[in-house]
Design a protein that fits this description.
Strands 3-2-1-4-5-6-10-7 form an eight-stranded mixed sheet, sandwiched between helices. The mean pLDDT is 97. By secondary structure, it is α/β, with parallel strands linked by helices. The protein has one domain: Ribonucleoside hydrolase-like (Inosine-uridine Nucleoside N-ribohydrolase, Chain A). Helix 1 crosses helix 12 and helix 5 crosses helix 7. Helix 1 links the parallel strand 1 and strand 2. 39% of the residues lie in helices and 17% in strands. The structure holds beta-D-ribofuranose and calcium ion.
Length: 314
């Protein structure tokens, strides 16, 4: 039986691959896509989610627009990595899919309420929408089977010495969600930097030889070029789809139960996820943290999904 999920995302190059993996893997039942501001302004991330579905032939999944900024402070889009429209690189086709009339929180609440089985939430951007959801609908927390988030890090950050972008973009939201009682899994930079988009990976995807694969390679080339320019990494990391891969095939990664606290104050460390792997604080574990990725298996899952969707969308 496939696992029902909702992706809450800020596409974003790697978010697009998370959507494709969810739609193209037989173990996953993608029930909805919601958008949040993060990598780009909400107009861009929402447009890009519709583009991601259009090019992949994903027509039966509702897409709804969410929060236009964090709970506190200003939106600071990751234009240096993802470009001015959050999806730099390929020419984007006009979406042929209509945006759902509902806002993101309403769509998530409706899907949770209507579902007979509990649903897994897969946020791959700042946790703003999910914080709004648990605050507005605490009665629905029990309908959430779990939440697997790309964000945070067990070590160093990528926007400040200790903060990862999605956590840094809305630390208060991450804190609220962690405290909400949802079964929380963190897929941080410590594991996502194992999913490197090497030249060989790009060649493997190009060899799938479909318009979708070609579009995907253009995304990957752009993403790698900005990672090289701004992070000194010529093979950028494909962070977000690791979340979906772990649901589709749990053996793709190892993980550990531990304690996470989000730094919402710190003068140097706002947005840091303090992951107490060595149990210094002696506080109860409140999360699962992903540690090691089966890199070869991960890329095979991506290839298989792009192959499956490429057949339908060609
Ligand atoms: C995260 O931030 C965004 O740039 C990516 O889409 C990913 O979700 C990595 O820090
Ligand atoms: Ca993202």
């Amino acid at each position: 039986m496939s696992i029902p999920i909702i992706i809450d995302c800020d596409p974003g190059h790697d978010d697009v691959f998370a959507i494709w993996l969810a739609a193209g893997n037989p173990n996953i039942d993608l029930r909805a896509i919601t958008t949040v501001a993060g990598n780009g302004r909400i107009e861009h991330t929402t447009h890009n989610a519709l583009v991601a579905c259009t090019v992949a032939g994903i027509r039966d999944v509702p897409v709804a627009r969410g929060a236009s900024g964090p709970l506190k402070g200003e939106l600071r889009p990751a234009e240096w990595i993802h470009g001015a429209n959050a999806l730099g690189g390929p020419v984007l086709p006009a979406p042929t899919i209509e945006l759902d009339d509902r806002d993101a929180v309403t769509l998530i609440a409706d899907v949770l309420t209507a579902s007979e089985e509990p649903v897994v939430l897969v946020p791959t951007g700042p946790l703003t929408n999910i914080a709004h959801l648990v605050q507005r609908h605490p009665e629905l927390v029990s309908k959430i089977e779990g939440l697997i988030w790309m964000g945070g890090s067990t070590g160093r950050g990528n926007v400040s010495p200790y903060a990862e972008f999605n956590a840094w973009a809305d630390p208060e939201a991450a804190d609220i969600v962690l405290r909400s009682g949802v079964d929380f899994t963190m897929v941080g930079l410590n594991i996502s930097h194992q999913a490197l988009i090497t030249r060989e990976v790009r060649a493997r995807i190009a060899a799938l030889d479909s318009p979708l694969a070609a579009f995907g390679v253009e995304l990957l080339e752009y993403f790698c070029s900005t990672y090289e320019q701004f992070e000194g990494m010529p093979d950028g990391p494909l962070h977000d789809p690791i979340t979906v891969a772990m649901l589709a095939e749990p053996s793709v990664a190892t993980s550990v139960r531990t304690r996470i606290d989000v730094e919402c104050e710190g003068t140097q460390t706002r947005g840091a996820t303090c992951v107490d792997l060595l149990n210094f604080l002696q506080r109860p574990a409140n999360a699962t943290v992903a540690l090691d990725l089966d890199v070869e298996r991960f890329w095979s899952l991506i290839e298989d999904a792009v192959t499956a969707l490429g057949r339908v969308s060609a």
